[in-house]
Protein: DegT/DnrJ/EryC1/StrS aminotransferase
Amino acid sequence: MIPIALPILDGEEGEAARRTVLSGWLSQGPQVAAFEHEFAALVGASYACAVSNCTAALHLALRAIGVGPGDEVVTASHSFIASANSIRYCGATPVFVDIDPSTYNLDPERVAEAITERTRAILVVHQMGMPCDLAALKALADRHQISLIEDAACAAGSQIRIDGLWDWIGKPHGQIACFSFHPRKVITTGEGGMMATGSVDLDQKFKLLRQHGMSVPDTVRHGSQQVIFEDYLEVGFNYRMTDMQAAIGRKQLERLTDIVSRRRALAGLYAELLGNIEGLSLPFEPEWARSNWQSYCVRLPDRVDQRAVMQSLLDQGIATRRGIMCAHREVPYAHEKQRHDLCQSELAQDRSILLPIYAQMVEEDQVRVADALKATLRN
Ligand SMILES: *Cc1c(COP(=O)(O)O)cnc(C)c1O
Structure:
């Protein structure tokens, strides 16, 4: 069986987790602090704050910039449902706009049309690790004096060229970039999230909100020679990452560059192997973007039954997934009348499939996937 994805973990991560367990400090502590420091340094952000998952990160990000009831946040429907849900958590309204079908990312022109006097922020998504058009979206956000938050859940290790320089996603262009370390992403801590920002004020706010609004973290009280009483400054959350997760994350971070270059090579080979299949559209990488290829998404030829293709591949021992979901078609959002046309989002969900891609994948398996897809489409 060729799986859709496979995390890379070995004795290094096992040993790091073991050492942390034996250290006696299990929740957010020195490993979390070190992980934040290393992550910020790698992506080129001034600050990073680890949290329990990326959904929590998105919630805190929107909360910290003051998104609340009555506000609108422009975002993609064509995304994992957590993007939309994080807006709802704040009592605000997600305003869905369509994607550019070639990159599966928000179309800046559609975003511009969707901005109203109630728009508080744009929540952009680097879908499947492909950087969205940050330069255009940032200019738009600046012009309207609204915030730009990046859902970079899939985009650890992706890069974008802005003003002639290649930056890692996470280097602050918007206010805050939120990452996920779920096992389906390119590096993992089991569950986990990270918020990167250039603002010390925002970073302090995240660090307050992620642990119940507590004025003095327990690590500080624990290490103090003096008795300290903490205060609770506002209604916060328990969004802490554990030190075991952070210890694993630090090892994963050391592998990130290698994982991404391997995935880029795999994407390159897929492009060769699949390039001559009639009617099949391959993913497009703009010349200013370097994807980490968290997912490899192909669009099936017209009139081909998506489910039948996926079933046929599964019968041949190859796991696939359908195109990224559309939140506006799911129960929590389906009753709302959509203001903007979302036909490219729906087509992307209905006509695309994701192929297996993971750093350990060997050429032989990629050839098997390509041959099986070719044969299936021929029938
Ligand atoms: C995975 C994902 C999330 C949620 O991440 P978790 O860490 O599982 O909470 C949010 N947005 C996008 C685009 C994702 O792919």
In short: Residues 53-55, 79-80, 82-83, 125, 151, 153-154, 180, 182, 193 surround pyridoxal-5'-phosphate (CB under 6 Å).
